[in-house]
Every structure is written in C-alpha cells, then in structure tokens.
C-alpha cells in the first residue's frame, strides 16, 4: 500500500485527460484465442463510440502495443501462456510507477472463471466479464470504463494502479494476493477450460510447441514451453530429467543405470523415462 499521499494532478495531466474523455473509447483486445478476439471485436463493433484499434494474441504482444498505440481500455484475457492477464497488469503498474505522467489504460478482465472476479478488483481492474461473453454484460463493462474515463474516477484509477505497483515492488509490506491457480494448471480441451491439480500430475513430456501433461490417468495438451513449466512446477516437487520430460518426484519408484552411462527413471505406474546426464543431479540420490 502507498503510505505517502499521491499527487493526482501529477499522475494524470489535466489537458491530456480532458482530451481523452471526449474522444471515442480506443480498445485493445488481448486474448490468446483467435476466435475469442474475433467475437469481442464483433460485439464491440455494435457499441457506439468504441473503436478496436488492435488485437494482441499474448501478454508480451500487449505490452509491446500499449506504449505505441496508447489505448484507453484493455479487454484482457486472464489465462494466457507465459504471461497471464494479471502479469500484464503488474507490468503496466510498474511502468506507471516509473513514469507517473503517462496515463496507463484502464483494464477490463475477460475470464472463463468467476473466481477471478474478486482478484480482478483487488488489482484495481475497472470490471470483469465472464466467458462466454454476454453482449449486454460486455456493454455494461465498456460503459463503466467510459464513465470512469469521463469523470474524476480516471485519476483515482491511475492512482490505484500506482498503489498496485508499490505493493508489488520488492520489500513492500503488503502481502501478495493469494493466487487461486497456485496448485493448479489451466488447460484448454475442445473449447472447454479444465483445471489440472499439480499434485495429480505424474509427468510432462514435450511434443513440439506443446507439452502433454499426464495426470490421474488422463492426458492434456498445453501450449507452453518446457522451461516455463519447469519453473512453475519446481516448487511443487517436480524435476527436469530430460530436455523433453519433467517428473513428479513423488512418482519416482527407482532410477536404473544403463551401460551407456545414462539412467532411466521408473515411475510408480511403470512409465520409464530417460534421465540425461546433464540432469542427473536433479534427482535426489
């Protein structure tokens, strides 16, 4: 939390704010699913005074576009590979802290899970919209953003974003918000969202640009880099045993040496995975 008072007039220049309040609402749509972006663009096209200026298919792309296009509003998907919606907002908050005279965009989260609603408001989003997107609910969220921009609430929203940046900064006194995804991984299967409990995962294997998660007798495809998954799973007792495999150490039954000098990791279910020499120290002896 910010302990010292913040100069609102310094954070949001009056002239710039006035100019933006009377122009059309310029929206950047951010979602890793092309069909979802297309639907949002189509729905927004029917809303008077709203212009979709661009689309971004990832959090990183959104961060590249924001300083170049200066959108008024982000429609931001929560669940995206590598950098999710909350991560994007945290980066924007950090930028706002470093450059307080540059007004950041307002944010409306778009999510398939209402459990994110509370957290959306904790991180100072203007609103949130559940998938599948209801046109009336989307219009309500856009109008709320428009009203925020039109009134003094815009300055307050920017101040609260700066407060978020302060709370996320190293050494901040405020404890981080609880992450509802801390022990789960979200995967998309046939158009539906599925939560996979991390303790249920036996192992993960790389398949090109995808990772296949083996958990509780089921397999799930996830478009994610192994390095990212390794970092995500390591605190939960997982280890990389090969450039193409990550295992749950609780599932390791034995490690069998081979004549070549390599080893084979045998899981409790009988699955055998190669243990490369370069990863040998990852498995406790």
TrEMBL record:
<dbReference type="InterPro" id="IPR007492">
    <property type="entry name" value="LytTR_DNA-bd_dom"/>
</dbReference>
<dbReference type="Pfam" id="PF04397">
    <property type="entry name" value="LytTR"/>
</dbReference>
<feature type="domain" description="HTH LytTR-type">
    <location>
        <begin position="185"/>
        <end position="285"/>
    </location>
</feature>
<dbReference type="InterPro" id="IPR046947">
    <property type="entry name" value="LytR-like"/>
</dbReference>
<dbReference type="Pfam" id="PF00072">
    <property type="entry name" value="Response_reg"/>
</dbReference>
<protein>
    <submittedName>
        <fullName>Response regulator receiver</fullName>
    </submittedName>
</protein>
<feature type="domain" description="Response regulatory">
    <location>
        <begin position="26"/>
        <end position="146"/>
    </location>
</feature>
<dbReference type="InterPro" id="IPR011006">
    <property type="entry name" value="CheY-like_superfamily"/>
</dbReference>
<dbReference type="GO" id="GO:0000156">
    <property type="term" value="F:phosphorelay response regulator activity"/>
</dbReference>
<feature type="modified residue" description="4-aspartylphosphate">
    <location>
        <position position="77"/>
    </location>
</feature>
<keyword id="KW-0597">Phosphoprotein</keyword>
<dbReference type="GO" id="GO:0003677">
    <property type="term" value="F:DNA binding"/>
</dbReference>
<dbReference type="InterPro" id="IPR001789">
    <property type="entry name" value="Sig_transdc_resp-reg_receiver"/>
</dbReference>
């Amino acid at each position: 939390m910010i302990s010292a008072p913040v100069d609102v007039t310094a954070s949001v220049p009056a002239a710039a704010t006035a100019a933006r309040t009377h122009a059309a609402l310029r929206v950047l749509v951010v979602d890793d699913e092309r069909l979802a972006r297309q639907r949002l663009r189509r729905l927004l096209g029917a809303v008077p005074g709203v212009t979709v200026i661009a689309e971004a298919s990832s959090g990183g792309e959104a961060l590249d576009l924001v300083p170049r296009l200066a959108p008024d509003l982000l429609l931001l998907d929560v669940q995206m590979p590598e950098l999710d919606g909350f991560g994007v907002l945290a980066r924007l908050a950090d930028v706002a802290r470093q450059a307080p005279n540059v007004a950041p965009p307002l944010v409306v989260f778009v999510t398939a899970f209402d459990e994110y609603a509370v957290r959306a408001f904790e991180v100072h989003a203007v609103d949130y919209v559940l998938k599948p997107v209801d046109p009336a609910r989307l219009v309500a969220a856009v109008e709320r953003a428009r009203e925020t921009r039109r009134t003094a609430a815009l300055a307050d929203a920017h101040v609260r974003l700066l407060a978020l940046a302060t709370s996320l900064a190293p050494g901040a006194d405020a404890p981080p918000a609880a992450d509802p995804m801390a022990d789960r991984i979200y995967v998309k299967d046939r158009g539906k969202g599925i939560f996979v409990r991390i303790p249920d995962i036996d192992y993960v294997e790389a398949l090109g640009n995808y990772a296949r998660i083996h958990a509780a007798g089921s397999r799930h495809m996830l478009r994610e880099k192994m390095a990212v998954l390794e970092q995500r799973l390591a605190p939960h007792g997982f280890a990389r045993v090969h450039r193409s495999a990550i295992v749950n150490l609780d599932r390791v039954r034995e490690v069998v040496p081979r004549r070549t000098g390599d080893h084979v990791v045998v899981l409790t279910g009988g699955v055998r995975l190669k243990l490369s020499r370069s990863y040998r120290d990852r498995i406790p002896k």
